[in-house]
Amino acid sequence: RHPVASFFHLFFRVSAIVVYLLCELLTSSFIACMVTIILLLSCDFWAVKNVTGRLMVGLRWWNQVDDDGRSHWVFEARKVSAQGGKTSSEAESRIFWLGLITCPMIWVIFAFSALFSFKVKWLAVVVMGVVLQGANLYGYIRCKVGSRKNLTSMATNYLGKQFLRQ
């Protein structure tokens, strides 16, 4: 239903990873590579947070500052339609969650690789990848599961059920 959103959901994520992997082969300028990767990661963060999450799975999150200056995080899920049918397709949902979970894991692998190979200059770029894509992952998990209280109780219930099965 939303092929353009599905394309851009993966395009910026995969492009940042590909540029990170190939940039030393393409150019010797670290600054050009760093700027390109961070721009791709920023575009990905914005697109996922503001467009693809809403269109593909009906979830969104944002930060709201009240009049007192206190920050409140708002997590929202689209309500199910009156007919009980889903408003997003199963394929789009799979694409969304696969891209949302897989790419931050790849950036974490890159972080350990940069750390253990002593490529300290690349560590800053990789940390930006982990932070930006990890923030979207955390926000959308909170949207899907609910509040932090629900998240911990859900984890406790799951572990309790696993323990009882054993």
Automatic annotation (TrEMBL):
Entry keyword set: Membrane, Transmembrane, Transmembrane helix
Signal sequence bounds: none
Membrane-crossing segments per the record: 26-47, 95-116, 122-141
GO cellular component: Golgi membrane
UniProt key word Disulfide bond: no
Topology within the bilayer: Multi-pass membrane protein
Matching Pfam families: DUF846
One BP annotation, GO: vesicle-mediated transport
The keyword Transmembrane helix belongs to this UniProt entry's keyword annotation: yes
UniProt superkingdom: Eukaryota
Chief location category: membrane
Cellular compartments annotated: Membrane
PANTHER family (UniProt xref): GOLGI APPARATUS MEMBRANE PROTEIN TVP23, GOLGI APPARATUS MEMBRANE PROTEIN TVP23 HOMOLOG B
Family: Belongs to the TVP23 family.
Record-given protein name: Golgi apparatus membrane protein TVP23 homolog
Organism of derivation: Pardalotus punctatus (spotted pardalote)
